[in-house]
């Protein structure tokens, strides 16, 4: 008898009996925080992850267990798998209900693998491994790894069969600070949907709205303005604006995003004497983001604790030069500088100097000013096909296998 992976022909989808051979049904359970009820990087990643598995795991070979989506939300999610959603349970009952649902379904179906799409699910996965012998895979993004972690969670990370990290920065932290073994943590950089983002002229509507002309030098950052997001580097850009305005007086810095940190940033802009050069665009809906990327001349987010940074890929898909920090997951998003300029995120003078060079189109790396190259290379490195290939390579030794009889001559 030979063993064939799940991504072989779809006649493996249900139990079969041929002579003395029985093909058992093998299940993978996938736990996700949410997929459709909120939007964000983790939600998008989970959606791409599940979509990538659909060509390899048959419709009856997996179950999705979703913590924060409501059952009605999931009815429209494009996945062939049965879904158990707990978003209709109110806090504080939702977390224990989700844990009970995961435990109940695992006890009933005896899955051969659990994929937990958030590190916070690790203790429950570890419990099921102890009770049922089910190995588990964890997904690690970034800030959730290095903030507020208990010994219980870290111990559960260390017992995982595999941890997938979205950047080398996150991977290195898990090994050096989280106590995981190097061979236990593998890299799985995210993908994105390039279709909404394309190379276009600066939108006339936004030029008029913000009092700009097509010749106005524009720097753009897209991020949440939250107290915990100050590592994104927008402070440094504002502090560097006086240096930039001395040489390019018409420069404008557009900050897209809302949150409680906005009053502090507005005060900083006033103190630096650059308030008139900073445009707080506030919340912008997803369908309008491409227009803002096309409005700018440079996209900049010199962060120092970014897990990866999907916004870099979106800006690159619009053909825009990008500036990012050189100490975190931004290095992976910019392919170690192939797709953008990497700077010391703590060096305001360097940030300002490099932004000026980009606005003047001065860097020796001419490819940064070839929009079609930036878009094509970004899709080549981070498009869905590349992501799906990387994912299956990481999981192929862990995905449940179907046993099928040898073909007789």
Describe this structure in words.
Helix 10 links the parallel strand 12 (252-256) and strand 13. This protein is α/β, with parallel strands linked by helices. It contains 16 helices and 17 strands. A 7-stranded parallel beta sheet has the order 6-5-4-7-8-9-10, sandwiched between helices. 37% of the residues lie in helices and 16% in strands. Mean pLDDT is 89; it is low at 1-24 and 402-409. The protein has 2 domains: 2-191 and 384-404, 3-Layer(aba) Sandwich (Rossmann fold); 204-382, 3-Layer(aba) Sandwich (Rossmann fold). The longest helix has 16 residues, at 94-109.
Question: Keyphrases for this structure?
Answer:
single chain, 409 residues, alpha/beta, Rossmann fold, 2 domains, 7-stranded parallel sheet, 6-stranded parallel sheet, 16 helices, 17 strands, 37% helix, elongated, disordered N terminus, disordered C terminus
SSE layout and pairing:
Elements: E1 2-4, E2 16-18, E3 21-23, E4 28-32, H1 41-53, E5 62-66, H2 71-74, E6 83-85, H3 94-109, E7 113-116, H4 122-132, E8 136-140, H5 143-146, H6 151-158, E9 162-165, H7 168-176, E10 185-187, H8 204-209, E11 218-222, H9 234-247, E12 252-256, H10 262-271, E13 278-282, H11 286-295, E14 298-301, H12 310-317, E15 322-325, H13 330-333, E16 341-343, H14 348-359, H15 371-382, H16 384-395, E17 402-404
Parallel strand pairs: 4-5, 4-7, 5-6, 7-8, 8-9, 9-10, 11-12, 11-14, 12-13, 14-15, 15-16
Antiparallel strand pairs: 1-17, 2-3
């Amino acid at each position: 008898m030979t063993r064939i992976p799940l991504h072989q022909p779809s006649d493996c989808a249900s139990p079969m009996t041929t002579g003395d051979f029985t093909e058992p049904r093998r299940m993978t359970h996938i736990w996700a925080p949410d997929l459709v009820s909120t939007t964000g990087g983790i939600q998008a990643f989970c959606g791409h992850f599940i979509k990538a598995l659909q060509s390899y795991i048959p419709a009856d070979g997996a179950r999705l267990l979703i913590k924060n989506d409501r059952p009605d939300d999931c009815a429209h999610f494009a996945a062939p798998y049965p879904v158990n959603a707990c978003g209709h349970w109110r806090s504080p009952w939702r977390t224990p209900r989700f844990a009970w649902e995961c435990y109940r379904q695992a006890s009933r179906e005896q899955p051969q693998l659990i994929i937990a799409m958030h590190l916070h699910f690790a203790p429950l996965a570890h419990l099921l491994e102890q009770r049922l012998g089910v190995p588990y895979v964890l997904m690690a993004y970034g800030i959730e790894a290095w903030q507020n972690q208990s010994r219980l969670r870290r111990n559960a990370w260390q017992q995982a069969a595999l941890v997938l990290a979205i950047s080398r920065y996150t991977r290195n932290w898990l090994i050096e600070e989280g106590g995981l073994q190097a061979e236990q943590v593998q890299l799985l950089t995210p993908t994105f949907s390039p279709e909404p983002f394309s190379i276009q002229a600066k939108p006339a509507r936004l030029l008029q709205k913000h009092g700009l002309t097509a010749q106005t030098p524009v720097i753009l950052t897209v991020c949440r303005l939250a107290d915990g997001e100050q590592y994104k580097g927008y402070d440094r850009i504002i502090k560097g604006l006086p240096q930039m305005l001395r040489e390019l007086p018409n420069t404008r810095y557009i900050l897209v995003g809302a949150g409680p940190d906005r009053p502090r940033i507005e005060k900083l802009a006033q103190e630096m004497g650059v308030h008139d050069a900073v445009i707080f665009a506030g919340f912008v809906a997803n369908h309008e983001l491409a227009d803002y990327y096309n409005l700018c001349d440079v996209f900049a987010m010199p962060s120092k604790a970014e897990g990866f940074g999907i916004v870099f890929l979106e800006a690159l898909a619009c053909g825009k030069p990008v500036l990012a920090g050189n100490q975190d997951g931004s290095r992976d998003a910019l392919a170690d500088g192939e797709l953008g300029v990497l700077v010391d995120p703590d060096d305001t003078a360097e940030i300002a100097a490099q932004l000026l060079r980009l606005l003047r189109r001065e860097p020796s790396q001419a490819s940064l000013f070839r929009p079609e190259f930036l878009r094509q290379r970004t899709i080549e490195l981070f498009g869905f096909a590349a992501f799906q290939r990387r994912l299956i390579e990481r999981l192929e030794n862990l995905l449940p296998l179907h046993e099928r009889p040898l073909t007789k001559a």
